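Sample 1 of the test manifest.
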Amino acid sequence: MDNEKRKEQLRTMFSKVVDPLGYKFSPDEELVGFLLEQEVNIEKEKGSPFCPCQGLTGEREHDMKLVCPCIPFHREHYDAMRRCWCGLYVHKDVEDPDSLMQISLKEFRESKNKN
Amino acid sequence: MKQEDNWIFALKADELDNGEKKPLLIEGNKVLVLKVGDDFFAMSNKCPHMECPLSKGTLEQYVIKCPCHDWRFDVREGKFLDAEEIRVPIYETKVMEEGVFVNLSMEGAGK
Amino acid sequence: MKKVVMYTLSTCPWCMRAKKFFREHDIPFEYTDYDKADDKTKEAIKEDCLAHGSEMSFPFVKIDDEVVVGYNPDKYATLLDL
């Protein structure tokens, strides 16, 4: 299957998954196209469309939580950023994705403990 | 149409033991019928993540784990355990005269 | 000058943006793509990342002894006194 076709399939499947979670694909089409392209290549190489911005460890329990969309397994952290780590998805009300920063898990936990 | 007309024969009740499951094609729909304890459950056989066949996953008590990426669902309500907003469509079942019947017209919205 | 060392992924656009940031500011840096590294290097990077914040998120940027996980130009600039 060619990459463009698979990208469209992933887009269709994943939009159904993220919609009930309050997320949508980023309005940054260029970024979305690039990330989906990476996921298609990763899927060809490793069998699953893992997050292009998080590293696999080889332990199934860890790695399966990085298959896109990985929002369910990082909900609180991503909700705080209003985006997922790689930025493929953003909260539905986000129109300017460039305004959203990546906050590391460590920072997120520290700020949570302070409040 | 009367409601009883919507019940479709799925399989014989003695075809499944506790903890067993069987994929079926019912009126063009991929349906998974499972038995836990004495109860029968029916759900879509397609994982809502990437449409993998749940029939190839593992069933432990009321939880079925997708073979592809380990997403876990409660077979009673179809809820995804890690985010309840995501559900597998589930269908009502009833046993009549040794047969298990499924009602595809009434998708259970979680009881 | 402070030393900049990065762990990156070849598939990650934020890693690319981080590299671009340092290039544009004429800051020399070293980087290793975790996904392309040999097993031994991978293991070392994994240990480093997990020890810092129990996550495998990239880019992982070390500026001398300070670590910034993620693309955060403001933080890079502060740490480099830009």
